[in-house]
Specification:
With 106 residues, the protein is of the alpha+beta class. The chain has one domain (31-105). The protein is built from two helices and seven strands; from the N terminus they run ββββαβββα. It has helices at 39-42, 82-105, and strands at 3-7, 10-16, 23-25, 30-32, 48-49, 55-56, 67-69. It has a three-stranded antiparallel β-sheet, with no helix packed on it. The chain has a two-stranded parallel sheet with strand order 4-7. A hairpin with a 6-residue loop joins β2 (10-16) and β3 (23-25).
Length: 106
């Protein structure tokens, strides 16, 4: 990924590198699970995540209500490492993202 656009508390656009030109994606919810290289997409202002797996700004506020982080972007206190961490957090982030998308439709 090249860039995340966050506007007014929502992730509004993702730019993904592709041959020829960047691919621009839009969605109701976004799970960012592309690994440690994705940390730069959130910027230095990202200081962690809340219980709902939203990335937090340096002020402690949620960066985007429809953005969820998973995998190696998270620090694990449980001692789970590698692929198991990626699978477990990706599953949880996906469920949270799906639930958020449904709530937005209601």
């Amino acid at each position: 990924m090249e860039k995340l656009e966050i506007y007014d508390g929502l992730c509004t656009e993702l730019r993904v590198a592709s041959p020829g030109h960047a691919l621009i994606l839009h969605g109701e919810s976004v799970v960012l699970a592309a690994g440690q290289s994705s940390v730069s997409l959130l910027g230095k202002a990202c200081t962690g995540h809340d219980e709902q797996m939203h990335p937090l700004a340096s002020t402690g506020s949620v960066m985007a209500r429809n953005l969820f982080v998973a995998g190696s972007l998270l620090q694990s206190d449980a001692g789970i490492k590698g692929d198991a961490m990626d699978i477990l957090t990706g599953y949880r982030a996906g469920n949270l993202a799906a639930a958020t998308a449904v709530l937005q439709l209601l």
